[in-house]
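Protocol step 4 of 5: obtain the predicted structure for the target chain.
Materials: sequence only (see below). No template structures provided, no constraints applied. The aim of this step is simply to have a reference model before the mutagenesis design in step 5. Sequence pasted as it appears in the construct record:
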Amino acid sequence: MARGGRNFNSNGKQKDEAPKVKISKETLKEALVLFTYLKPYRAKFIGSLVFIALSAFTTSLFPLFLGKMIDAAAPGAAGTIGQSTSLGASLGINLKDIQWSLNTTLLLIFLQLTIQTIFSFMRVYLLTEVGEKALADMRKDVYSRLLSMPMSYFTEKRVGELSNRISSDLSQIQDAISFTLAEFLRGIFTLIIGLGFIFWISAKLALVMLAVVPVIAILAVIFGMRIRKMARKAQDQLADSGTIVQETFQGISIVKSFTAEFYEISRYVKSVYAVVDTAITNARYRGAFISFMIFSVFGSIAFVMWYGANMIKTGELTMGSLTMFVIFSMFVGGTFAGFADMFSQLQKTLGATQSIREILRTQGESVELGMNQVKPEFQLNGQVRFEEVAFSYPSRPDVQVLKSISLLANNGEQIAVVGPSGAGKSTLAALLLQFYQPDKGALYFDERLATDFPISQLRMQMAYVPQDIVLFGGTIKENIAYGNLHATEEEIIAAAKQANAHEFISKFPEGYQTIVGERGIKLSGGQRQRVAIARAILKNPTFLILDEATSSLDSESEQLVQEALENLMQGRTSFVIAHRLSTIRNANKIVVIDKGVVAEQGSHEQLMANNGLYRKLNEMQFEFGSIGANTNS
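Step 4 output (structure tokens):
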């Protein structure tokens, strides 16, 4: 469920971050499967890895050249300046003894920085391009798979959860490819090169430094985990306070009518101060962590410098070599510290990968993707037959909605389905649309089993107008054209006229280009209903399924739309689910469903003469209508 544009779980907790999972052989194997999306771009991906290694190597040359510059300025260095002035010689076996002039060293530094800049640009550019393209392919596959899922899948999943999979989880994977992977590999290269250099400069000093670094790194990780845990707690509490605000404003009429302003303010203040307490506690940990790091890092540097200075006194080390050593040590220490965060990011990526892999592994419906037309061999005439159909929703297998339904609708007939709430009327529509398959019995179209038809071929020949009208957030024209994406503007207008929608659409300043808003919120209930009917008319279906299609219309609009629907239903098989029995008296057949079975069926006159459930429902509505009329008068 989405609240305020962010994703929350059932407790109202924010779900922006992917869950962390343990790193194991199985989770890593799953993650590597998603790297198959890199195959089309493997040349650029390999190139980016090469540039990562080259970038790390050229970056590591900077401390070397800086140390040589300091040695060049040190007393007594002039005597060794002329030994070699070429970079090629500097890569020889006597690198420690090589000396360059200050000017030569500066030129080498700028040459190194220029080459490093090119390498860094190429690694970022190539890896980003590969990551973005691979992610686009992944998004397409995940979205396509979600759209092909059966209706039972969507009844078990929250919309916010599915949106989170496409947005947050895939973005987490993209960050792993474009950033985390690059930083991890760069850190590995830097660590290897840095350790190599510090041992090359002085093995004794390297061992002193390495004795200190692990202790600092371990304590940094412990502090970091605690701080992240407190930060997540504060984030969850903040999400709770946001939920209170949203719920209060959504139900503001209830709050004011019950004079509950003080209660809501108290509830919000309590939530806000819980955030404050957590944030202050977290600040203590962060303050202690920062103080500890400052003391540890600078203390370690001071200790290494002190030990190195003694080595300079004894002639074991030069000033430039000590400078190199300190900078390389900072590289190594920074890399160690970065690995902790990378490990956390890796855990999140593996969690996101599991979610995405779960979607990609789930078997969806065999829907036809693309602008397909009805194939001649699957063209329907309009007959449909239910034979002893029984059905329970997958989410409620113990509740049998339909027990044994048998009914026949011939080509061009109007079948009205009536009955008490919960009798199973809308379930019949869901089975017709192949949203679900019967548990028992069979459904036939033109005396052919429904399972013999591709699902898309059946649905292309059906139009559905639900009770809860859903419009997309675009224009009125786009919503009507959803019935036939190839329709011309004239055909769209003609459909709107048939649905008696053209008149109110024309009154809008933007006409058919009017934006309807999210779920059609800018239109009234009756206007939304008529747009949905126009959408069904434009599809020109063989089967028409109307689920309370006139429920939101006023009396005048209902009469106009009822006339349009009667014209539309001519020549095509129609199933009309209705509570308002006055709208279906002219149906060819009225089917009364009660407790999952067909209680009775026939024409209006036949059923009124039966003195059964249909007559009872009619009399109840007539009495209710009379009471309402007297009250209004």
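Step 4 remarks: The longest strand covers residues 384-391. Residues 2-361 form a domain with the ABC transporter transmembrane region fold fold (CATH 1.20.1560.10).
Proceed to step 5.
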